[in-house]
Amino acid sequence: MVPGDAALESEHLGALVEKYGENPLRGFLGAFGVVWSVAALMFLVLAAISVHQRDLAGSLTAVALALISGVVAVDCLQTFSSSHGVQAEIYERGLSITRAGVTTRARWSEIVSVEER
Predict the structure, then answer these.
(1) Taking CA 92 as the corner, what is the angle to CA 88 and CA 96, rounded to the nearest 5 degrees?
(2) Which residue of 33, 72, 96, 104 could cross-link 77, Cys pair, CB 3.0 to 4.6 Å?
């Protein structure tokens, strides 16, 4: 498979049959990651206020909630950053794969096997 001009080669591969690898939840994961990050910061501020007011129980609760929010935020943002992955387009006479912004196209006669992961 050799990278080439997208518009010209996709015409030679025929009509688009199906697309794979697009993650519709990717945008939501990024937004949730930011929201949970802000929540973690707010809980840390609340913990600092509780310490200043000598409220040990409130402070420990706020720190625990900040840690939980931070873990959820890191998980959402990590999934967001790693979910762009590989996108495949199946055409009548070939296959197109996009990975890290580089598109590779091939006719079915040039492909020995296709595996799904």
Answers:
(1) 25
(2) 33
